[in-house]
Each structure stands twice: as structure tokens, then as C-alpha cells.
Amino acid sequence: MKKQKKKWIILGTGICMAGIITTLLFCFQTSKEKVSAGNGKTNTVRVKKMDLTKSVSATGTLASVRSKTVTAKTNDSTVKKVLVEVGDSVKEGDSLVTFDKEDLQEALQDAKENLANVKSSSDREVTSAETQLSDAKTNAAEEKSRQKKEITAAKKTLAETKKTVSQLKKQLKKAKDQQAKASLEQQLAQAEEKKEKAETSYQTAVSNQSSSSRQNNSSISNAENAVETAKANRTKNVKEAQKLVEEAQENLEQCAVKAAMDGLVTAVNVSEGDSYSGGSLIQIEDTSAYTVSTTVDEYDISDVKKGQKVVILTEATGDDELEGEISFVAPSTSSSSVSSVTDSEAPSGNSGNSSSDSSGYEVKITLKSSDDRLKLGMTAKCSIILEEAENVLAVPYDAVKQTKDGNTITVIEENSGSQKEISVTPGMESDYYVEVQGSDLQEGMQVVIPSDETDTSDAGEKTEQAGGNGLGNPMNGFGGGPGGAGERRGGGNGSGKPDRAPGN
């Protein structure tokens, strides 16, 4: 037994020593590769066909496509029963709340009595206005008749005085006796005085008639307007009172308040026994489809358009992608109505998420499909797809050099191992890769990347993360890739699949 135990100890010790030696050799070799890479080793990647995507990332909140606030027309009615609870699913026409029938009967009776009072009061107002109109017309007619008689009498008196003056003038011409002349002159003077008074009286009567006529016409017009107003008020008031009767009758016939649409009950604002006097009874949200409300900062908003595709991830749905579409882009920051997302809520390494500053623009995203796992208020990570390129040749953008003659990349010839420059035309860029085209360019070529910027192992890792489907690593933010200006964009060489919701 002792010999066997000793054998096992020696064997174990040997195995441990072998492991230690292997580890030291591996570390030495790794250290040697890194040193050689840092001292001019040529790093290369292969030209590959990839799916590239440029995107803008944003974080928002799930909301329903529409909501309905349920109210009742009745006032001062007692809630008899609440038939739903928060979280219940309802169908259009389902009863939600019932009211005490006795209260509704009393409300109907009150409405009928009010209608009768309105009719009676309105009729009295119309009758009074019509009476005033009739009086005004009668007074006008009487005044006109009186004025006419006054004018006729004044006119007759004036005619008589004129005739007297004319006769006295004729007699005065024929008179020869001085005494007779003197008497006639005295009579003529008196007659002319009477004539002047008669003319004044006549003119006054005519003027009075004109003034009186204007006043009477004004009184009649005012009285007519009063009648029209009284009749219009009667029609209006009776109609409103009749509407209240109809509403009370409807409330009585339908003691139960019913759902106007299918949806989820998210709020119940009354309880049994409550006295209801208006306002919200029930809140219903249509959860058959969802929207995402978010904000995009001013750096990216010019690229965001209505109708653009959006890839969405939530904590509840895990790695399962949801597809959405931009349905609204605010024209200004003041148009925004959603709460801004703070930087702390953004995925790490992605500064392009919506922020809480004043430069955020509201964006609404409509999901094209629903999922039973989704709930209102959930956080949604969104990648707004700006541009896509499928199955294109691509290289890391660090490999592309700008010269006076254009853009080039350095490739290694397979046979000789020598390097040469070939001309390329850059196309779409993601965060790490850029599409390249050129007559001399072929898939599989080895492309040199400056060793001080990118290590081969890193490039290979990022290429592996990108995958062949262009969706990116779900745990690497919105596609990953290096920093710089492109950090605001999602993608890597993938489609900018958004990161998981905060917490993962």
C-alpha cells in the first residue's frame, strides 16, 4: 500500500511539472509573437465577401399602437359594479362598469323635468318678445296717425292764412280811403304774422313725423331681433335639454359601460360604491401591436427617415430579433414628446444612442409583428438601418490608403510573397469594414494592415464576430467596431443588431 501510494504521488508530481513546463512554453511563444508583431511583423487579412450595414442605435420604450380612455356620460351616479381588473384582456362590447339603476332613473326624470322647464321658460321669452314687437308696431301706427293729423291741420291752417293774406293784399290795392287803407294794412300785417306761425307749425309737424318714424322703425327692428333671438335660444336650449334626456335614457337602457375596442386593461380608476361625476373610468391599451418611442441626437437625425427598417431587441425576447419601421420623425426638438434616454442607458462603446440633451429628436418606430413576451413599458434596443450592402468584397478600413493617385490597398502575392499596391474604389463603410471594388481585386487576397494599428488576431476576431449573415454579435453593442467618428454608427460588418437590454 505504501509503495502504491508513493507511485501515485510521483506520477501526480510529474503531471504537474509537465503542465507547468507546457504553460511556460506557451506563454513564451505568445510573448514572442506579440513582440514580433510589434516590431514590424506583417499583419494581413483576407478579402472577404460580407454583408455590411450602417445603422444608428437608439433606446426607447414600448407603447401600444392606440389607447382608449373609457368614460360615461352620466353624472353623480353610483358605481354598482366594476367588472374588470388591471391586466384583463377585453373585447369590443364587453361590459366594464355598471351604475346603480335607481340613480339613472332619477337622472332621466331630472332631465325630463329640465326639458319641460326649458320649453316653458323659452316659450315665455318668445311670447314676451313677440308682445314687445306687437306693442312697438301699434305705437308706431298710432304715432304715425297722430303725426299725419297734425300735419294735415297745420297744412290747412297755413293754406287759410295764405288765402287771407292774398285777399287783404287785393283789398289794399283797391282801397282809396286813407282810413280804409290803414285798417287793411293793419289786418294784413296780422295775417302775415299768422301765416309765418302756420308755416313754422307745418314744418315742425313734418320734422316731427320724420323723427318719430325713424324712432318707431328702430324700435320695431329691435323688437324683431329680440323675437328672432328668443326663438333661436328656444331652439338651442330645447335641443340641448332634449339631448340630455336622450343621454339619460341611453344610460338607463345601457347601465353597463362597454369597451369600444379590443385591448388590455391598464388602469381602473373607480371602485364599487364610488360616486361618478365624469372623468376616466377605465384605460384600455391595444397591445395587438407596439410602437417604440425614442430619441435620436442631432448628429444622426438627418440620416433617419420615415419608412426605414429597424432591428429591435428586448430583454424579454432575448436574441430574437423584432422588425420595425420608422413611422414618425419629429421636425424639431420641441416636437418631441417622449422622455429622452440618458447616456447611462446606452450600450457601452456606442455614443450614438439617444441622449437627454436638448438636441434629441423624437422618433417613433412601429413593430411589424407582435410577440406574447412583450409588455408595455419594456426597454427596447433599436438599430435603425441606414444602408445595407449584401455579399460585397470588404476589408478593414485601416487597410485602405489614400494617395495622390487615389485609394489603394497593399496585397501579398501568393507565389512570391512580395507586396504590391492595387487601386480600389471604396464603397459603403461600416464601423470596421469598408466595401472595396477594383479590376485587380479578388476574393481571398491577403491584404496588409499596418501593424501599429491592427493586430491580425484582433482582425480575425472581429471578422469572426461579424459572421456570414451580417447580424453582428448580439452582445457586442450595435455591431461593434473600433472608435472614432464611426462609433456613432452601428454595424461592424453586420446589420447593426442591437445589444441586449440593460442588465445583460
Provide a concise account of the structure shown:
The chain is α+β, with helices and mostly antiparallel strands and 504 residues long. The protein contains 5 helices and 20 strands.
Question: Could you describe the 3D structure shown?
Answer:
The chain is of the alpha+beta class. The protein is built from 5 helices and 20 strands. A hairpin with a 6-residue loop joins strand 15 (406-412) and strand 16. Residues 1-13, 20-40, 337-358 and 453-504 have low confidence and may be disordered.
Query: Could you spell the SSE succession in H and E letters?
Result: HEEEEEHHEEEEHEEEEEEEEEEHE
Given the helix and strand composition, which structural class is it? alpha+beta
| Number of strand elements | 20
Oligomer: single chain
CATH class descriptor name of the largest domain: Mainly Beta
Portion of residues in beta strands equals: 25-35%
Which residues sit in consecutive blocks of at least 5 with pLDDT less than 50?
1-13, 20-40, 337-358, 453-504
CATH topology annotation of the largest domain = Elongation Factor Tu (Ef-tu), domain 3
Number of helices: 5
Q: How helix-rich are the residues, as a percent range?
A: 40-55%
Radius of gyration: 50 Å
CATH superfamily of the largest domain: Efflux pump adaptor protein, beta barrel domain
The largest pleated sheet is described as: 6 strands, antiparallel, barrel
Query: Which architecture of the largest domain per CATH?
Result: Beta Barrel
Outline type: elongated
N-to-C span: 53 Å
Report mean pLDDT, rounded to a whole number: 76
Across the major sheet, the strand order is: 2-9-12-11-10-13
